[in-house]
Amino acid sequence: MKKKCKPISQGGIPLWIRKTLLLMKFTCLLVLLTVFQSFAVKTAAQGTQISVDMKNTTMENIFQTIEEESSYYFLYSRSVIDVTRKADLKVDNANIQQVLEQLFNGTDINYKIEGRQIVLTKDNETGSQQVLTVTGTVTDVNGLGLPGVTVVVKGTTNGMVTDFDGNYTLSNVAGDAILVFSFVGMQTQEVPVAGKSSISVVLEEETIGIEEVVAVGYGSMKKSDLTGSISSVSAERIASVGTSSVMGALQGASAGVDITTNSTRPGAGFSIQVRGQNSLNSGDPLYVVDGIIVDDIDFLNPSDIEKIDVLKDASSTAIYGSRGSNGVVIVQTKGASAAKSKLSISYDGYYGVREITRIPDFMDGREWTDFRTSRYYTWDETNQTYTLTSSNKTAVTQNSTIVNQALYDQKYTDWLGLGTKNGSQQNHYVNISGMAQDISYNIGAGYQKEEGNFLEEKMDKYVFKGSINHKASKYFSTGANFTMSHQIVNTGSQYGYRDLMRMPVVLPAYDEEGNLIEQPGIKASINGDGNFTSSANPLIEIQSGSHETRRFDILGSAFVEVRPIEGLSIKSTFSPRFNRTRIGYYYEANSNRSVSQAENDNQESFDWTWDNVVNYNRRFNVDHNLNFTFIQSAYKTRYEYLSIYAEDFAYDSGWYNMLGGTIGTGNSESGYSQTSMLSFAARANYDYAGKYMVTGTVRYDGSSKLADKWAAFPSAALGWRVSEEPFMQDVRWLSNLKARLSFGYSGNNNISAYSTMQTPNTDSTVYYDFDGTVVSGFGVGSPVNTALTWERTREWNFGFDFGLFNNKVNGAVDLYDKLSDGLLMSRTLTIESGVDDMTDNIGSVNNRGIEITVNTVNIENTDWRWTTSFTFASNRNAIRSLYGKKEDVVNEARFIDEPINVIYDYKVNGVYNYADWSAMSSDERSAMGADRPGYARAIDTDKDGEMTTDDKVILGSIDPSWTGSVTSTLSYKKLDLSFNIYTRQGVFVNDRFLQEFGPSANSQRGRPKVNMDYYVPGGVPRADWSTFDIDDSGQPWMTWTTSEENADAKMPLYGYTGNFYGSNGSYQDASFVKVRNITLGYTFDKTLISKAHLSYARIYLNILNPFTFTDYVGWDPEYATTTLQNGNGPSTVTYQVGLNLKF
């Protein structure tokens, strides 16, 4: 929609700033309310009045009832107090003193109230039945004290945390009690007191395996209890990669999750697919950060990530209903819930240098001149041969003295070197967490900076976050968190970098006085007769242009959780999110444009989610465990944008936000949209004895985007821990074996806000007559399809998890079959309809595949540890129907039972050389498209004796046939070495690099070309590089010889390809194997760092992307489909040094 908009500021303060301040005030208010409410609850608990009416009830049940009705807890020894004795208790609004007096009156039990503890003893207690004060020290395996370890009397709330040196002192401990020692990352230990007053323990690191906890959407589960397909990526894995992007760290970490980078530039985006492409319009997965739904996760700092879980099958994603068909990525950042000690401070940082690598084999000056000569050959039909006219001879070098001198000296201009430099990157993140009484908190701040390899490229990212949780009592908790991120990316002049790579090496960048030549390719600059190119010097273009993106994100959430009875929790969470993105560019006037130009695009979105979750968990008779979750969720979005274009400024300020020139109304536009969704969901989990598991989920979504608003998305899953069966107990080498089977539906409503509503045509002006009064207004917009329904994805998944040899070898295998139906996309309508296109449910797509993950512990002893992880995934994508039919749509390159993204063209096998061509009759030449020698030898695939469009075939697909990765870590004492290898195989692309620089794919003979085997006819003039003519002034001039035919050439020259070559000149295999990173690290012994109050210190060296193995001809196969101006440039290798500290 295009329309005039009101100013976006009032009272001198921009509207977005006022909204941001309002959101920050709201978040701060929630945090304050959380804290004050927590203290208020705690104070109120001290004056609790108790009402109990119990008859002939055991003392144990009476104690439990009093604990549930108050904030007090009983402390006693079972060997001293007979809790099976039955008694009566009836009180009404009594305080705790009155309750205890009535309960113990006439018994031999003594009680003492200390804080919230009620200590029970008998008059004749001695020895182990006495109440003790226990002291001790908690250390790690190296003998160093562990601060922040929780020490608690089992079954009570009597506990504390160890001090900085690992010491503790705990009073009111029964002589036969049990002490529980726990610390994050360590194995929990239970130690009987046995009448001792001094107890010291050594905690060992825990090994996380099948008991790992993973996010399942609106909750979490132990991995051993999962029935769906979910893969997890740890914070250690993310931090070890050393990239500035969370998505970059995920690459290759999870089987079935295909991630590729789109650009070589700082802040570059990524493409991601989970188990193939489900829609003809592609589709990213749903991102959930700390329970908040977001569009992407580029704004996060990798050092702030605690864990990432990827939900892949329908059983797992069905809880997100209409937004889960493309998979769900759940990100958990470091929050207050992870705080375990009074105070913990950590620092993670690195600094790195980026160098350009993998320079393609471009033609040098003489090779490029030979190519340029070939492009001037013409066909002489009379003599049946190629010729080079005298005028075209001159045009090869434009009779340029400067060009000829460069060819003679073989000294050329390194345009790429002039426009690039060594880049750098750095990341610093500080995290502070702790716990004070019942309040835990976490504060983090991060700064990232990248300097790109092209001039003027850079990125700065600032992240600040905080969270606080308060468990006011066993019945009530509150909490809040927020994240603020500000990212600034400047990519310089996109056209400058594009033209930098298009400049031929024979043209100079500077004149004799060292000044930049404004147009290096015109005759005035090269002292010649004609022009190579009229383009501006790209170095001037780079200096005179800027392209900047500023992104500002605020995420917040606040929750209240009530636990009225054991096993039941009710949690309400409100999560607002604000995003503002401003994209602007400014280009000064030069030979590329007659006037200066600028554009300012402003996008703003605000959305909120309100989730209400009821969870009930109950275990019956030890072996039966039930968990029910009920969810009600509301979601609302608002989005608006304003784009303003202007040109011809009186002064070149360089600022895109000072639009004082002529406003281009035809290029300026604005828009606004709102959407909403209301959802209800339920999930039930049951397991028997940890062996048999059942999960059922259903979600009911209503969306404002569709006329048929409501749809249900059910799923079910089964799990069987085969290894727990009695008949498997003798199979000692099998540690774990669990089979999983799931079936379910998820959906997608990825269409614009008003696709089912007819909106006005704001580009038109229509005059309406109201009883003789004529008024102007908008015309009626195009008809819409009010019958649109949801995209639905049906999925089967069968998998099994395994562990061998005490889980030294473990992993998972999954087989899946997905069918996405009712795909939403635009379809072309007939001319008679009067409408060009309309959104419709037009087809179905199937994805079938296998995923394998294997983890091994190869060596593990006192000094050595060697682990390896392997992933493999293969997906088969196929269209099953189009427009309600099982028929191919050839003009759209859509074929039934074939992948969505196919390349459909003629199949070519070399060229017709002169001998082949001469042996053919004129009819054969005409039938096969061999009008001249050097034309492409197209294959008659239907074998009807002539070349037609029916001979086109599917040559390949841009989607990989399989992906895989290998990660290995070898450690010796404090030294560790690791590497990660990632591969994508079977990738076939219409390559952007060859479209620019391939000798068979581009008509521009003035651009650089990459060395490839192209056809050269025989008997025509060719440069003789063995000699030069020198004129009277000493100026060298090219001399000529006669060419020999390159009879076995693999490809024709552009312009002489024939009618059946298609785009074969830019097709190539983009498969690759990359060593993503190699890391060498050293962890300092705690005895060396303890004096600096450090509990952990590690230094490491990291190399990112050191090696790429591929047959791809170009910069980098990973972004082969990206244009030059969008970042298809040289790949880089980065050398980092990093440091991790914990205080």
From TrEMBL:
* Keyword annotations of the record: Cell outer membrane, Membrane, Transmembrane, Transmembrane beta strand, Transport
Q: Where does this protein reside within or beyond the cell?
A: Cell outer membrane
Would the keyword Membrane turn up in this protein's UniProt record?
yes
Regarding protein family, the annotation reads: Belongs to the TonB-dependent receptor family.
- What is this protein called in UniProt? TonB-linked SusC/RagA family outer membrane protein
Which InterPro entries does this one have?
A: Beta-barrel_TonB_sf, CarboxyPept-like_regulatory, Plug_dom, Plug_dom_sf, Secretin/TonB_short_N, TonB-dep_OMP_SusC/RagA, TonB-dep_OMP_SusC/RagA_CS, TonB-dep_rcpt-like
Topology term for the membrane: Multi-pass membrane protein
**Domain Secretin/TonB short N-terminal, which positions?**
72-123
Per the record, its GO cellular-component terms are: cell outer membrane
Q: Which organism is it from?
A: Mangrovibacterium diazotrophicum
Task: Quote the SUPFAM superfamilies the UniProt record gives.
Answer: Carboxypeptidase regulatory domain-like, Porins
Concerning Pfam families, the annotation shows: CarbopepD_reg_2, Plug, STN
